[in-house]
Structures are given as C-alpha cells and as structure tokens.
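Section 5.1 Outputs to date
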Amino acid sequence: MIYAKTPLTPEIRAAASRAWGAEGEGERLYGGEESAAYRLGGHVLRVGPAGRGVAESEWCHAVARHAAVTLPEAVAPLATDGGATVVVVDGRPISCWPYVEGSWPDSDVPAQREAGARLLARLHRALAGLRPGPRPVPAFQESGLYGDPHPDAADLADPVLDRWLAGFHAGHPVRHPLHGDYYTGNTLATDDGRIVAVLDWDETFVGAPELELAAAALEWGDDLIGPSKEFVAAYHEEGGTAAPLDEESLAQLVRHKLRREYAYFRKAAASGVRHDEEDLEYHRARVELFHRLRP
C-alpha cells in the first residue's frame, strides 16, 4: 500500500494554530492514500490532496458531524471560530480532528469482525434520516453504480453486471449517506478489541446501504476469497438499514466495488504511483476475484 507523502509545512502548522489552536510535534500517523494525517497533541491534522474543493470536503464533514450527534464512535472534524471545518493552505484542504487512541482492528478475529458489522449497522441508523443535498463532486464509488458504463475500467466491462445494477437500484429505493470506505483502516480499536472510532469521511456519498454492507463484508472478511456471511448476519442482527441480500446480490455489489478498485489502481498508476510487487499481486488477485464472483 502506497500512502501520501505530503509534508506538514510551516505554513500548514501556522494555519492550524490560528484556526484550531493545534500545536505539537507533528507525528505522521500511519495510513492515508490521498490525505496525510499528523498528530499535534490532542489534535490530528488531515492534509488533503491539492485541488480538492472546499465544498466537497465541507459536505463530507457535515455527514460526519451529523453521525457524531448520536454515534459516539463517529469522529467528526472541529470547526473554526467562523464555523468552517476546512482551511486552504497552498491549494490543499486542511482539517482538524480530535485525536483518538487506538489501532486498526483485526478482521481475522471473529469478535472484532462482528463488532465492525454492528458498528456499521448503528452508523447507518445514525445517517438514515439525513438529507444533505447533492454531493458537490460525485464520489469515486458512484461511477457505474446505476448501470452506466465505466470508461475508466473498460477492461472489466460487463454489460450483464451493468444491467443488474440498474435493476437492483430500481428495486431498492432506500438512499441515505454512507461512509463510503468502511474498512478496518478507517476504524480504531482499543487493546481489548473495542472499536472506538470511525475515521476518514472523504468518500462519503448518498447511496443504497446494501452497497456499503456488501463492500464492508468483503473488507472485513477474507478480501481475496469473498465477503463474510458472518459480517452480514451480525449487521442485520444489529438492525442496520440495508435490506437482506441473496447470494447473487451480495456478489454483484461486491463486483461493483472491485471494478471501482481496478479503476482507482489505474488512476494511481497513470498519476505516477509506482506499485511494488506486493501491490501488483494484490491487484491481480482482486481482478481474479471480480471474475470468480460472477454469478
């Protein structure tokens, strides 16, 4: 996995101090493919990619702040005195978040996988009533979601999947905000396995909750073999908003996610990212899974 190497510049430090009173050493935190996170005492600064618009970030942050009202694990951004959650420094959106102690949970541990599923169900319930209006810029996961072609994933063209997606969404009208990237790396757990934080809301968008349930079941299952049925069962037991999924629906929604992963990999490579052999092998395995899960 290749993470952003954006530095914490003196200009960013100064802006963070003025906007949020954030001061500290500036420890680079692990993770972040597009945004780099730095700990400054009790704050975390997220330095976004150059060119990402303020409106897009503020829209995503509003979803996080709504979730945090009723979901303690939802980590929301801090506002400036003027009410904004983003300041721009050298063309990059900068946001400030409370620091939460913890580490990535282990989805291979059944209890942590179940905890992740139950937290997702509660998160969906917390977001079910929010109507935030159109996202200023469509999320990456939205491309092709309703059966339209994937121009950035032509090698995985599948008209049958496209027609299935269009039909699925016609028959599943429930829409509400989704986290958009719910995997272990965007959560934190304590040493005893309790999940205490949901992080990184950059990919949030409004969609069918079944889509996120399927994607999360893959990420919290064996991500080279297929989605976890135990994850899905725990989610429903906890009262999540997604409707029950049969095996075909679960597989096809996972395949949408895998096709978007393929497009993201190609986008990163085109931008100059150099993937190592481990990344390439993982990419090949995910493409193989896309084909193997075809109903």
